[in-house]
Amino acid sequence: MARKDELEKRRQRNQLVPSACGGCVLKRPPFDDEYYYQSLDTGSLKNDIIIEILKRLPAKSLLRFRAVCKSWCAFISNSSHFSRKHLSHAVTDSSSFRVLYSLMPPLSVDCEALLKKDGPVQGRKLKLPNRYKQHRRTTGSLKREVANIVVGSCNGLICLLLKWGYVVLWNPCTRKVNKLPKQTHVKTHQTFYGFGYDSCTERYKIILGDMPSMPKTLAHTAIFTTSWRNFDDVQIHNEIYGRGCLLNGALHWIESAQWDAIEDDHSGPSRLSIISFDLAEEKFQKLVSLPSLVTQDTSAKVWTSRDSIFVCFWNGTVRTETKLTIWEMKEYGIEDSWTNVGHISFNSHPECYWPLKFFEDGNFLMTICGGLLVYDPEKKTIRSNSDLPILYMETLVSPFTS
Q1: 168-227 pLDDT, tens digit each
Q2: Mean pLDDT for the chain?
Q3: What does the DSSP 8-state code read for residue 386?
Q4: Are residues 162 and 258 in the same domain?
Q5: What are the F-box domain coordinates in residue numbering (predicted)?
Q6: Are residues 4 and 145 in the same domain?
Q7: Which of 127, 150, 221, 262 has a beta carbon 3.0–4.6 Å from 209's, enabling a disulfide?
Q8: What is the pTM of this model?
């Protein structure tokens, strides 16, 4: 009885107050996880049993189950403890992974469907939240407003840099979006960027940076945790560009040039390295050198899959037959653990490509010039599906999480 009285008092403290937009907002933060757990209506079954069942279901199914009753709706929608339990299971379930391959309009495709079907796979059109429909009046097109850069993906959240310098966290599954405070120094065209989760502080972090124009000068970098912080005392001795891939609490890039080598005017091509940014310590460092075949004269990409770092690069030139060679770092941070896991032959060198995922059965998912390709190493066949590839999971993680 005392427990019920305590819950009722907590309900009353969370009074609704009028908001500026004419609706109502909570005066205090939502109830804690204990409240949602105790109020979960599960009939004769114990709550723990129900939770163990629910966490194994796809996120889309759980969103439909919010209609069962009010307590289920509140628990599935608001319990951060349950969303973490569901996430821990989703990362091991291959059916939860999807590829966002277009933003105009937003389209995604199921990774498993790409492997099972021989022909093209129909993409799912994603719905953007209503709060962004107002931009149609001023810009004339929501498509131009939505995203200029896909900063990264982590735990089902996709980080987007909008055209006007705003950054948003978007969960395509729940359709929730958190628009972050504008950073005055953020440009819409960043030279390097990344998004990840710092398990030490249990916070998501965003990094946006511009490479300096001269060697050994300071890079302009901004980091967001709970607010934007300028991080301008970073001296980078290696050029890095594009989206950093996340693994073991760090973002990773392949250096595109070595300034020390450029200044020394080496006659031969230099061996490149993987540069990492530790999200907890907020430091750049050289992780390992790439395989000796990867030099400044090759076009190389880095990505993470199956808890490993992969690198692929081209041999050959644009006008001759080329071979895409794939290497895996079997042990994180150990240079001697680089292992050649295969190659794919093409008739020409594509100008734009991006690796996405290495499946357990050896199939390799990548994009070339905007099209999705699945390569089967046993059959040596390529299936195409049809500019913006990023892998994400369907989860219940809220973009409003710290």
Answers
A1: 899 999 988 888 888 766 665 678 899 999 999 889 999 988 776 655 555 678 888 878
A2: 73
A3: -
A4: yes
A5: 39-85
A6: no
A7: 221
A8: 0.77
Domain co-membership, 191 together with 316: yes
3-state DSSP percent of the chain in helix, strand and coil, to 5: 20, 40, 40
DSSP annotation of 343: E
Buried b (16+ CB within 10 A) or exposed e, 78-91: bbbebbbbbbeebe
Question: 118: which residues sit within 8 A by CB, 6+ positions away?
Answer: 383
> 90 and 156 in contact (C-beta within 8 Å)?
yes
Lowest mean per-residue pLDDT among 5-19, 162-176, 263-277, 328-342: 5-19
Cβ-contact 109, 99 below 8 angstroms: yes
Supply the range of the domain harboring residue 254.
94-393
Question: What distance in Å separates the CA atoms of residue 330 and residue 310, rounded to the nearest whole number?
Answer: 9
- CA dihedral over 384, 388, 390, 393, signed as positive or negative: negative
CATH number of the structural domain spanning residue 305 = 2.120.10.80
What is the rounded CA–CA span in Å between residue 160 and residue 167? 6
The pLDDT confidence band at residue 96, using thresholds 50, 70 and 90, is confident
What residues contact residue 333 under an 8 Å CB cut-off, 6+ apart? 287, 288
Query: How far apart (Å, rounded) are the C-alpha atoms in residues 154 and 246?
Result: 8
- Please answer whether residues 344 and 364 qualify as being in contact, where contact means their C-beta atoms are separated by less than 8 angstroms: yes
Do residues 148 and 277 share a domain? yes
pLDDT above 80 for 296: no
Burial class (CB in 10 A: 0-12, 13-18, 19+), 290: buried
d(CA 136, CA 181): 21
Helices (H) and strands (E) in the chain, counts: 10, 30
- Is the per-residue pLDDT at 7 higher than 50? no
Separation CA 109–CA 369 (nearest Å): 17
> What confidence score (pLDDT) does residue 332 get?
94
Residue 26, pLDDT above cutoff 80:
no
CB within 8 Å of 53: residues ≥ 6 apart? none
Indicate whether 60 belongs to any domain. no
